[in-house]
Amino acid sequence: MKIAVINPNTTASMTATIADAARRVANSGTEILAVTSSMGPVSIEGYYDEALALPGLLLEIARAERSGAEAAVIACFDDTGLDAARALATIPVLGICEAALATVSFIAQRITIVTTMERSRLPIEHLVHRYGMVGRVKVRAADIPVLSLEDPHSDARDRLRGEIAAALRDDRAEAIVLGCAGMADLSHALSTEFGVPVIDGVAAAVKQAEGLVTLGLSTAKRGAYATPVNKPYMGELQGFAPAQI
Amino acid sequence: MKIAVINPNTTASMTATIADAARRVANSGTEILAVTSSMGPVSIEGYYDEALALPGLLLEIARAERSGAEAAVIACFDDTGLDAARALATIPVLGICEAALATVSFIAQRITIVTTMERSRLPIEHLVHRYGMVGRVKVRAADIPVLSLEDPHSDARDRLRGEIAAALRDDRAEAIVLGCAGMADLSHALSTEFGVPVIDGVAAAVKQAEGLVTLGLSTAKRGAYATPVNKPYMGELQGFAPAQI
Amino acid sequence: MKIAVINPNTTASMTATIADAARRVANSGTEILAVTSSMGPVSIEGYYDEALALPGLLLEIARAERSGAEAAVIACFDDTGLDAARALATIPVLGICEAALATVSFIAQRITIVTTMERSRLPIEHLVHRYGMVGRVKVRAADIPVLSLEDPHSDARDRLRGEIAAALRDDRAEAIVLGCAGMADLSHALSTEFGVPVIDGVAAAVKQAEGLVTLGLSTAKRGAYATPVNKPYMGELQGFAPAQI
Amino acid sequence: MKIAVINPNTTASMTATIADAARRVANSGTEILAVTSSMGPVSIEGYYDEALALPGLLLEIARAERSGAEAAVIACFDDTGLDAARALATIPVLGICEAALATVSFIAQRITIVTTMERSRLPIEHLVHRYGMVGRVKVRAADIPVLSLEDPHSDARDRLRGEIAAALRDDRAEAIVLGCAGMADLSHALSTEFGVPVIDGVAAAVKQAEGLVTLGLSTAKRGAYATPVNKPYMGELQGFAPAQI
Amino acid sequence: MKIAVINPNTTASMTATIADAARRVANSGTEILAVTSSMGPVSIEGYYDEALALPGLLLEIARAERSGAEAAVIACFDDTGLDAARALATIPVLGICEAALATVSFIAQRITIVTTMERSRLPIEHLVHRYGMVGRVKVRAADIPVLSLEDPHSDARDRLRGEIAAALRDDRAEAIVLGCAGMADLSHALSTEFGVPVIDGVAAAVKQAEGLVTLGLSTAKRGAYATPVNKPYMGELQGFAPAQI
Amino acid sequence: MKIAVINPNTTASMTATIADAARRVANSGTEILAVTSSMGPVSIEGYYDEALALPGLLLEIARAERSGAEAAVIACFDDTGLDAARALATIPVLGICEAALATVSFIAQRITIVTTMERSRLPIEHLVHRYGMVGRVKVRAADIPVLSLEDPHSDARDRLRGEIAAALRDDRAEAIVLGCAGMADLSHALSTEFGVPVIDGVAAAVKQAEGLVTLGLSTAKRGAYATPVNKPYMGELQGFAPAQI
Hints:
Six copies of one chain form a homohexamer.
Chain A: E1 2-7, H1 12-25, E2 31-36, E3 40-41, H2 47-66, E4 71-74, H3 82-88, E5 93-95, H4 96-104, E6 111-115, H5 118-130, E7 137-141, H6 156-170, E8 175-179, H7 187-194, E9 198-200, H8 201-215, E10 233-234
Parallel strand pairs in A: 1-2, 1-4, 4-5, 6-7, 6-8, 8-9
Helix pairs in contact in A: 1-8, 4-8
């Protein structure tokens, strides 16, 4: 089985972290195809970055399907471009926020997501709403830039731990979800430190993807995820017309 | 990996159907421990049967954990006893309704569940509400007794197909969820016949269970799923005291 | 008029407290039939105890109806087994949580329920949701074992009063609901002490039951509360088959 | 015990129907004080009539309390002026829509309200929302003027029965609520004819009122129902200043 | 274009503040017809005042339409009598709470309303619910009488500023809505002081009214806003019959 | 006042229709700057087209602000890129779906949106949810390609009228919202034909934009709409880095 894990930002070192987390939990027969987007922002922090990450992401979705991937994971906690990717692809596509929430829903009633920047909090709260988990899930922001997670000299991880401690003390949280793909390497250490389940969405999405492939399930192509109507695309995005991408 | 799949009714032939569905999708290294409850109703049709299925179910949950199962699946679409089982066990426990809904949520926006009897429709609608999928999921009842699914002379399967056809025509359904463990053998044929994804909860729950075990996740024991306080149990249920079961 | 008030745990001293509260408010022509379950846990603290209280409770529901009771009250604030009891009985059946909330809804907009243990908080929050009172009702736990309410040397009542004080100070609560049948004797003293309405569910349920009987109303037997289909019950629960209980 | 039942429209013949329904279910020791508003519309059909019924209604609430009533019922299914009456009075005040819904919630899951005119449907849907019963309750309008219910030559009752039949056939309704005080005399006959519970709000409210009085409960005076601040009232409504009414 | 701005309380000095706020933002071709109610309370603080403000308000709505106004604004933050006014008038009618919320919804996700008295908080929370903004909008009360806003010696404005500061610090508020028509003159100064958008409902409603008139839109007269059925009105309210007002 | 109206698809003839609708309702002092996106799909039909319309749209938002526009309208009923545009710009940005819904909310309770293709229905239903109008608004699709609205030989307009007729007959709709910018020229004729308010989002958004500018209000820059953090953008989207666009 081949599963594409696509980092929709253009920072290859973050892709490496993500790929490690994916491979650590993949079945022995699963090949993880880790991909970095070739165009757009170096990190996704809020709505504007998210919008400009879409063309690069959709290009990689199309390439992944052509190269034989049986499922694709979008490795950004905003579930960037998930609907467009599902419309485009015939293979199943998963977001790491939705995968993390679906997974944690089996083991806890009250959950806190800890994300990076304040500006990502509201988009994630909208996802919590969309995924039907309002009232069960609270979102906290540790107020750290995404790429600071990779900087050994930053205090990013300490701030993250401070928010987890606050969630356990003040939110009645029973489990923690890490709200950024760049935290994918931290789940085990934090779970051990705090004594509660700590879920990383990349790992969760890989398991969900393997499950869908084994079950022979893919995106329903009736309704909003119907294959895009082919039509001309203009200007610099000419090559993105459905029949050409 | 050993996963217990527990049929909370006492009909062994239905357990056989369930076990087949579970084994068909399990990873090669996964052993499926299929168990039939030893006490309670022969089929679960509505709230009363569900209540009396609980002691037998909880006994099997305790036994499964003692015998080394790393996860347990409750194979009744009412998710009978799910909360009590999660409080009792330290291994993760999954319901097939919640597993089916979590799984289908990755591939479709509008879903119809087709269950057996009208009296099961409302309890399933409550589960849809609890799992945060109101507005996405509609429930239909084919008006067939559970055990008629096993009777080659009944028209149960035709009625089921009639409801699926109605769901695709009238509900904007993009995918179908089979609303009874006794339908576990039908998902592939129905998916082929109707050309849409058809999800069986037993298969979905096995994949979710494997995922949780691989991820090293189990029920959070803070809050409502805290281990039961030991205390005397009286009368015929004396043996069910937390420390004794 | 004869109304059965059933304590679904097996502690007779708690039944005595409940019976007193029921008789204090019953009409002069109403006979209160106070019953203690003969099997299951000595107190109901969380999902597991609740599940094992069901057979004993349903047995008493059936007996109460046979002995001429015109309505039944389930005297546990989790509304344990309410749906199953309604399906089984032809007389109306009331839970004390739903009766307390229906009653308080006529006199206050913002309400706080104070219950015993943290693990009961989430199940009660689910009831609040089901009864349509999310946004109006907050649940607090005083962190006291149920049976400590009967112990003159425990600090249970002081902790309860601490939570009431906090509710009035911090929750904008206009009225208090006591979240455990074992608190049934405290409503008047607490109402006097704090100067706000304090509702006990046992008393509320008795008045609701009398009202239903006078109005000639009982459970609608279409849909989810249809009379259980008779069928074999196996093992130690053989005697619980619908036609035999 | 003395309970005021106030008809907020000015049609005395409708008050007679309402009084009969109230007395039929009242306890033997309960005196029903039936009152007709002295100012405003002859029937309440929509928002405008409702607004102009308020001064007359509030006057009768104040008089009822002064004359020793221990509770008051507002006998219009729009629950006209309920909030203002609760702020004004120190005795409990009940609306017949809220009383009917609280009562039926103990005996049915799916309910249909059948009201008179289309223009009353939306205000009643707003009440259903406010009382937390969206998803359980559907509202139908029989398209009949309120006062036609009193006209033996009109087809109002046949239209009403037509909507009940439709509710049972098409809405999965398990019980019917009559959505107009002018239907208070019909509940028993309709229940017999259709074989399902049929609830009249006037009768339901009388039993709820008796219950509250016996329980010693009245409107919480913290928050939105705090006693009105006294202040000058101008023009023709001078006499309605809180200290004067 | 002529727009009526109706102060439903009887305090002319407050009308002057409101008229100033309206004229400051009106288009050059818009005439603002500022009107003070001639009957009812001198200020609207809670449900009781609101109910008695209705006859005076509806009289002014009818007069405004007769005098050629093309739209009417009800200048009380409780949106007093909005539904009745819409049924009565054929010109569009706007409430200042709904106008403020519609306007702020284009520029902020998290909003805090700061109103005057605690007893107005719950009615405004109900409006927030009705206007679909639960989860986005929080309501705070500065605990100040409405008319104290006009008193240069009161500390009302300081208390208001204290609540705004608290909203920005504790509620994640991105914008502030002033929750009383009597605050209409303060929006610019407070916006400058706190550096966030501060919305006054009177100004917002005038712009919405101008927009509706230009678009040629008025209240839909199907459903709940259908023109009131003419019928006799009794007693002191005789003159309010639909055909006479 | 200068307001930019941006057509996020690349079809200039549709921009002409949109510009006409905008100018017809603009104040005499308002200049409408009508812009066609220079890159991306020729029409937006579903999630994929929407994603690829974003870079072209955001470019025009940045240009509009630089060229002195005081507000911007995104003239696609999916409210394509609204959040990203709000984060990028300091002038207010409006979507035509949100503007249409805010406007119609003042004049009707039950509304039906009629859009073009089935695949756009679900995204619009999500907007209805986000804008807090679930329960008030129904969405219908006339099953017509967007560009067929411009083709005099297609039956697109007849299909649209068929859906409006169905909405009035079956949905209790009191007003109609046109669910595509390409229908902007039809609102007056359809309103006349059907005798109910018919709202076009382009016109509604222009009036809302004028209102915000006059009120001196723009997007709150705390929280999710904070100005994007500058950072490198890679590959073909290099020029879209916040500091460069």
